[in-house]
Amino acid sequence: MNPVVPLGAHGVRAWRWVAAMALVATAVATHWPRLTFGPEGPSDKWVHAIAFGVLTWFVWEARWIRRVITLGVVACAYAAIDESTQQLAIFQRHTSIEDYGADVCGIAVACALLWPPFAPISTAARMRRALRLAARARMWDRPTTWLAIATTAVACALVGGVVSLGYWYWVGHHIALGQCILLGMCTSVILGVASAVTLGGCASTRIIRRNRCCFHCGAPVNEVQAEPSPAGACSHCATPWRAVQWSVPADTDESGRRSTRRPPSSGRTRSAIFASILIPVVVMLLWVTWRIPPVDPLGDSGEREYFLLRALTIMIIASIAASRLLNRADLRRYEREGIDCLACGHSVEGTRADGGIGRCPECGGEFIRVSDPA
Ligand SMILES: [Zn+2]
Ligand SMILES: [Zn+2]
User: Residue 125's closest CA among 272, 359, 327, 263?
Assistant: First the structure.
């Protein structure tokens, strides 16, 4: 019998290659003698922030470091070494504290996004999370995923470049052309890749549900339909499974996407959290655009750069707070599966759940009720 390859093993190997290549590329680019964008070129703060943010993400996916706090500290230390070695005479570059600030901003954004959600406590919520993790692992195992993401990135870079060229031509003459195009391309690639990853995760979830794949090795579990009280162990890797682990929560569709049906109370909480974070951020953005010191073609750009860094820092703190609060609100709701209906909020405490699966008498949405450890 072939040794069992756990789901995600190929994906991690691919990520290690990507992360290693990105580390080498960044080290070369930051130490390349006299590499600058020139006085008229794009502000290299954005490039610094984006490069170090992406690098942090890659290192996380490579699983060399398993805790986000450690990842952040190591990345900041690496950035400090990278920045300070630039003053060595052979590289003919200089160390800049503003550049380091930009690196740290990028790392902070990456860490905020990677910060794992609060760990679920109830068995039902833990099963939901196990499915999400299995779907992600399965997605990164496929070479087609990598191909699709590379294609998306190239297409988005082209589209973003053309759109920002148009923007610069008709609207944004006061911005440096290079900066406008570079920012447009980066934004477009980030949005495109993020959507591709989300869609890939949804497709992967749908396949795992439909084929009833084992969460550990990904092999389909076929004998499930015949059983009256369905539970068993994978015939490949002996990982135990229960039929409820593939069930569809009432508030999502088969692919794991949120449906519009949700309890009114949770909708209100989310909007309140969103509003309390989003409004200050928008006000902040407007204020920054209004108050930003103008580019002084003769003077140095230090004042402007500091201003941008301060604004970025405030926005990072706001977004970390928002994501943590939303996360907690979500988790509280998922912990109540089997007690309240996730879709309409109706109490299902007295409703029967044969084989662990029940239906809300109010809206017909499916819920699972599992008490013992999976
Ligand atoms: Zn298995
Ligand atoms: Zn319901």
Answer: 327
